[in-house]
Amino acid sequence: MLHPFLGYVPEPALETASNAGGLGDLIAAGSEVESLLTRSPEALVVAVFGGSVANVLATEHRDLLRSALEGLARDSSRELEIVSVASGGYKQPQQLMALNYLLVLGASFDVVIELDGFNEVALPPAELSRWGVFPLYPRNWPLRAAALEPSLVRERATLALLEERRSRWMRSFDRPPLSLSFLGHRIWRMGDERIERRLADRQVALLDRDLGLEGYQTTGPRPPRSEGAQLEVIVRAWSEASESMAALCAARGIWYVHLLQPNQYVDGSKPLTPRERRTAFREDHRYRPGVVAGYPKMREACERLRQRGIPCHDATDLFAQVDETVYVDDCCHLNARGNELLAVAIARALEDLPSDRDRGGAEPPARSPPRAR
């Protein structure tokens, strides 16, 4: 659904593994927003921002993240509450705008975790550049904002039906006894992956069409002509958005950490297993060029942020010594083991916060949550 400040939010009725319980519910369902405004003083609220990788970690694998961060709650004698403010396809400055919007509504967080980087560099060249859309606009913006021809309306209706089918399939396994069954989980996963492949195929076909769209509403400001110049805009905005989120959090006594998420298309970042080579890597993947060109720049920008006192952690090499399978698809998403390692990396980043602040730059928050263990 279009959103006046965030570009779009997922339709809560169309829950999938990548958006269930995340920003779509938080923004669209008044009761969820209300719960942030009436939080218990006994709660230690950890908010996770980013795209689908961040949302899956904070929802589907919430227990893994909770376990990694249990020291936060134990040392403060407060109950850890993890909130997903992430959404599939989100890229900066959408995360910054989401934080601003929720703070304006009166939300209160103790810790903000930003996990991103992939969508920022992968999506614009694959989904926006061919239409001449400004690279910072939300993904697939012309399809969301333009008055579409009837054939495109029908195609989007088909996509919506596939999303609804995926949602029904997930709900059918979301209650006992199937929700407690390992076999039930495997059957759900196989069916979900099949529907996801159909969705991806139809989305790619839609993106490859010559839409003939023009006008400021659908394209935004004129983008830089060269790919290199567009990448500079993307990386600068990503860096500035992180610095702005850090400043917002510091001003309100919130601890902030930022992680550049790992991805299999970063050269040398992981020894791929045979299974990952079959199912999680494609030489011709449409997202790969953006990752190959963009991640070196993002890593440099992350280091510059650290030098300025912004706690940005490069998790690109998180799986460099991991011989197990962690990637579950040819985009970016992780299995339970991958999410477990990612959760531990986040906990370690929180442990580093005092030393990060001691290096200069941002002032420490007015109130300091205990360190993770």
Query: How would you sum up the global shape?
Result: globular
Q: Estimate the strand proportion.
A: 5-15%
- Number of helical segments with 4 or more residues: 16
Q: Describe the biggest sheet?
A: 5 strands, parallel
Strand order of the largest sheet: 4-3-5-6-7
**Number of beta strands:** 7
Report Rg: 20 Å
What order do the SSEs take from the amino end to the carboxyl end, as H and E? EEHHEHHHEHEHHHHHHEHHEHH
Mean pLDDT: 83
Q: Between the first and last Cα atoms, what is the distance in angstroms?
A: 39 Å
Based on helices, strands and strand pairing, what is the structural class? alpha/beta
Question: Spans of 5+ residues with little confidence (pLDDT < 50)?
Answer: 355-368
> What is the share of helical residues?
40-55%
